[in-house]
Amino acid sequence: MKYLFIIAIIFGISAVIFLAPEKHVNITNTAEVSSVKIAKGLPKLLDLGAHKCVACKKMEPVLEKLKKDFKGKLIVEFIDVWLPENRKKAMGYKIQYIPTQIFISKDGKEIDRHVGFISEKDILSKWKKLGYDFSKKDKGN
User: What is the per-residue pLDDT for 14?
Assistant: First the structure.
C-alpha cells in the first residue's frame, strides 16, 4: 500500500510537470479562444483530455450530445492533450489534471473551470449559473 501511494505521487508530479506551462499565457490571447469571437460570439465549452483516459472517454458522449443539441448556440471542442501536436496548446491553458472543462464566454474570456467528469445536466446547470440558459432550445443567448 505504501508503494502504491509513492507511485501515485510520482505519477501526479509527472503529470503536473508534463502539462505545466513554460510561461504564463493569458487565455484570451490564444488562437482557440479568439475563434469564439469569429464564430458569431458564441460561448464555448473546451474539454482538455485524452482518448486513453477513462474519465475522458466517459465525457465523449456528453460532449457529442451537447455539440449536436446546441449547434449554433454553443461551441464544444475536445483537445487530446497527449497528442504531440496538441501539447503546446494544452500547456497554454495551464491544466493540471484531465479531463478539464473550460467554460468560455461569448466574448472569449474564461469564466469557469471544472476538473474531472461532469454530466450534461451539471454542465447545463453551470452554464445557467454563468448567465447562459441552454435549456430553452428555441431561443438563443
Answer: 41
